[in-house]
């Protein structure tokens, strides 16, 4: 126990530098609404552009976005629609699997967020698993509507992919959502008619014994991509004889909304919140710029991100520190 604490202490000072895959998300109230105009009237659009509206990008424009992200643009479907597409549907275990949900761009950890209650007053537009519709649980052919899920997703493999997505959403006045693992209890990783940026593939974990910030040696640090799940990171740090201040849910992503929301941990009574242990963030801000954020570079943003709440400031690409959290509320997903 003592040696663990010592290791933790070392990690506390050093380990929490993480890189975050960023996709900048800002509060919609801060967004300039006049950036997109109706092509017919030229007047400012009060809402994000949706399919069927003049301002919504045509197929060819989406194809250009797809090319700019090396073909990593995919159509998004709900997890129920995904299961319906499998022979025999999903098993109960598959439906409940956070690992499976991490791998399906449109799947939230809690499927209710995919159901589209807002636009469907009486009942949601998507069924739950397979063709079984709760609460009766009798087989029926319920409709698989589009649900409260995005239209397209960029399965980002680099910060540049995230930048392209943020810039595209900004340019075309589209709703933007970010998903690392989709655990957000408020469903802020999904939104209807949105462009989703998935950071799931940002799986880099890099250790440094002498991580420097402003010329100062901060010691041992781990830098993690914003797709790295906590269990993966715990395994990697354990192999190095180290630990970091992280949460308990295996499939929650460290450098994501978890950290931006502060990051509770069993180690917090001794070492503070996860965000207290972060040394640096690599983020994409709303104008598509990739920024390094630490106590000497963009220090105001560093301050804001360490307590400002998930999704309110930036989209992380990587954290060099402790796990960061990148959560976004539905309403804040608009760029
Ligand atoms: C994006 O491009 C890739 C590669 O050409 C293609 O497989 C994929 O279907 C395209 N995505 C969309 C949404 O059209
Ligand atoms: C669902 O639709 C299929 C194909 O139309 C049909 O064969 C089946 O009987 C339907 N099931 C129910 C429960 O209505
Ligand atoms: C992940 O690490 C590899 C090898 O160091 C590097 O080439 C790649 O750019 C990194 N990816 C990201 C998203 O940082
Ligand atoms: C983008 O935003 C960042 C952070 O506010 C700022 O430093 C940068 O100058 C902006 N870039 C452009 C092109 O506006």
Automatic annotation (TrEMBL):
Where the record annotates domain FAD-binding PCMH-type, the positions are 146-326
Q: Which SUPFAM superfamilies match?
A: FAD-binding/transporter-associated domain-like
Name the chain's protein: FAD-binding PCMH-type domain-containing protein
Q: What cofactor(s) does the depicted protein rely on?
A: FAD
Q: Mind telling me which InterPro entries this protein's record contains?
A: FAD-bd_PCMH, FAD-bd_PCMH-like_sf, FAD-bd_PCMH_sub2, FAD-linked_Oxidoreductase, Oxid_FAD_bind_N, Oxy_OxRdtase_FAD_BS
Signal peptide range:
1-22
- Alphabetical UniProt keywords: FAD, Flavoprotein, Oxidoreductase, Signal
Q: Which GO terms describe its molecular function?
A: FAD binding; oxidoreductase activity
The highest taxon in the source lineage is: Eukaryota
UniProt lists the family membership as follows: Belongs to the oxygen-dependent FAD-linked oxidoreductase family.
Q: Name one Pfam family in it.
A: FAD_binding_4
């Amino acid at each position: 126990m003592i040696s663990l604490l010592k290791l933790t202490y070392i990690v506390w000072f050093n380990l929490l530098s993480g890189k975050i895959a960023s996709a900048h998300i800002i509060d919609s109230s801060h967004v300039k609404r006049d950036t997109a105009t109706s092509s017919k009237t030229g007047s400012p659009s009060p809402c994000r552009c949706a399919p069927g509206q003049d301002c919504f990008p045509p197929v060819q424009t989406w194809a250009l976005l797809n090319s700019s992200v090396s073909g990593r643009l995919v159509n998004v479907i709900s997890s129920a629609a995904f299961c319906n597409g499998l022979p025999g549907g999903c098993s109960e275990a598959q439906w409940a699997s956070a690992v499976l949900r991490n791998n399906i761009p449109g799947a939230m950890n809690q499927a209710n967020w995919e159901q589209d209650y807002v636009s469907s007053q009486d009942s949601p537009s998507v069924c739950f698993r397979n063709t079984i519709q709760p609460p009766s649980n009798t087989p029926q052919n319920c409709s698989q509507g589009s649900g409260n899920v995005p239209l397209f997703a960029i399965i980002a493999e680099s910060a540049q992919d995230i930048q392209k997505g943020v810039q595209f959403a900004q340019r075309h006045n589209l709703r933007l959502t970010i998903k690392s693992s989709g655990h957000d209890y408020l469903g802020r990783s999904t939104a209807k008619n949105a462009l989703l940026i998935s950071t799931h593939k940002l799986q880099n974990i890099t250790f440094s014994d002498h991580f420097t910030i402003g010329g100062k040696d901060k010691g041992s640090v781990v830098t993690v991509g914003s797709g790295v799940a906590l269990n993966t990171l715990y395994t990697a740090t354990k192999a190095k004889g180290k630990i970091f201040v992280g949460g308990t849910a295996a499939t929650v992503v460290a450098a994501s909304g978890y950290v931006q929301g502060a990051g509770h941990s069993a180690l917090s009574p001794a070492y503070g919140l996860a965000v207290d242990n972060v040394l640096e963030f690599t983020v994409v801000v709303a104008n598509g710029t990739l920024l390094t954020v630490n106590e000497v570079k963009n220090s105001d943003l560093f301050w804001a991100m360490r307590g400002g709440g998930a999704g309110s400031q930036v989209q992380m690409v990587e954290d060099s520190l402790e796990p960061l959290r990148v959560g976004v509320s539905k309403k804040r997903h608009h760029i």
